[in-house]
Amino acid sequence: MRKLRSGTIVNISSLGGRIGLMPFLTAYHVSKFAVEGFTESLRQELTEFNIDVIWIEPGAIRSSFIDNSKSAKNYNPQDSPYSKMIQKVFEGFESVMGDSSSPRDVAETILNAVNTPTPNVRYPVGKDAEYALKVRAKLSDKEMEKWARESYMDKEGFIRE
User: Fold this and answer.
1) Which one from 28, 31, 73, 82 is the annotated catalytic residue?
2) CATH code at 142?
3) Is residue 160 assigned to a domain?
4) Is residue 54 part of a domain?
5) Which of 6, 31, 32, 88 is labelled catalytic?
6) How does pLDDT run across 126-156, given as a tens digit for each residue?
7) Global pTM?
8) Is 82 part of the annotated catalytic residue set?
9) Domain residue limits at 35
10) How many Å apart are CA 79 and CA 48, to the nearest integer?
């Protein structure tokens, strides 16, 4: 790409790389925040070579994400100080997953991005990602924490006006 002085690199991150919304998924958020920082730095390094570096930031995507989190979901001993919170969070996750985007939505976003002559830097995917980013832009850090906590522990999910 440097020799050709052209190209596009697409990194897949997550809404979870911009906003630490989900309790008990700290390692997930850490990895996604790392992808965000890597991508921001890489953009700076490659701009003089006319290489675009963009990232895709899906929200909830229809997948087995919740089922694959069973180790945390099943860790619910009665004497744990987190047992009630874990239960509420996973009930909220199930609601969010019911309104999730399809993997096809992510693929179409990537295809559109790489076929655009002047791609955006970031591409949120899904109504939940777009809504959460709008909310984040309006709230203080403490207000955002409260909104996220209430949203993910509510069976209604977090796409509420």
Assistant:
1) 28
2) 3.40.50.720
3) no
4) yes
5) 32
6) 988 998 899 999 999 999 988 887 776 655 5
7) 0.81
8) no
9) 7-152
10) 57
